[in-house]
Write a structure and sequence with these properties.
261 residues, alpha+beta, 6 helices
Amino acid sequence: MKIISTLMSTTLTLIVYSSLSLAQENLSIKTVKTTNPTKTHWGYTGHSSAEKWAELSPKNKICATGKNQSPINVITSIDADLEALAIAYTNPSSSVLNNGHTIQVNMQAGNTLNIDGISFELKQFHFHTPSENNIDGKSFPLEAHFVHLDKDNNIAVLALMFEEGEANANLAKIWEKMPLKANEKNSIILEDIASVLLPSQREYYRFNGSLTTPPCTEGVRWFVLKTPVSISKGQVAKFLKVMKHPNNRPIQATNARVIVK
């Protein structure tokens, strides 16, 4: 499992599972630089913007041709008796990475989401501003994507919206240590960080989608939480300053997909 976890962490860093953000006090931080920074082959502006992703590499073809691409405008079409999300985020984070596309918090092993009789392990979570998914046409100032893999490398993403309000004390612990430069990483041990970021109400919308970054892989289970949490205007501004520009992919066509709640 250690080898698999390491490989998956590396893979997630390279392709930036996007998308497809600490109340405990035990905190240990040490700033380091990545020894092998990767070149940015895609981005959100200019010749490498989202509209150009499919042209940048044959591997990205589905970014243009896919029928189940993310993000989408979440407009429910079916009311269903969805099973509760069995979330067990009990282990701490390990590092926070600025990969040039987002700020990504990597997690230690053992944090799980159980759904459909399958156990998905949380590998990392990262952020987009403004939000990538919309809910009934509404955009949010920030969205977090909690990226999971099962034993067969199937992907599940839990999306959390942030709405403007009071400063988020848990998010602040990450923001204080987020690397300011691309390809820098900080060691950061935050107990239960993934869990405390989530709202107590965990009802959700569900649909099939894709990664929101190249190669835009489809077959991703998406779970978008209905209840947002707060973020201050200053916290959004700090993230945007580090990213230097918005890092959200435009809304994609829903096509024939069914969204349930």
